[in-house]
């Protein structure tokens, strides 16, 4: 049984499903509120590296804040550091939930992926 950290927004239905699934798979969870305690720039760098995904995959592109800030057009002209600082200061910009055991990372929730990676 592994202890996982999940960055989640408790009001998000997808996050609640993810937590339920992870617990059913026998995982112990450290739940971090993505808005009240978003990952720091350093934590984000580790999460991105361990996920094998591009930085842009960590943006919640369907969120209201992303749209209202016009990030679709702005991200390409921002440096990686600026993007990381933006994510670290606005938890609602981060695609959620993010789950990690310190080595592996999943972004978003797909039940079959969770069973493969965290089951």
From TrEMBL:
Database matches in CDD domains: ArsC_like
Gene3D superfamilies membership: Glutaredoxin
Pfam families registered for this protein in UniProt: ArsC
PROSITE patterns: ARSC, GLUTAREDOXIN_2
PANTHER family found in the cross-reference section: ARSENATE REDUCTASE, PROTEIN YFFB
Family: Belongs to the ArsC family.
Identification of the protein by name: Arsenate reductase family protein
Source organism of this protein record: Paenibacillus montaniterrae
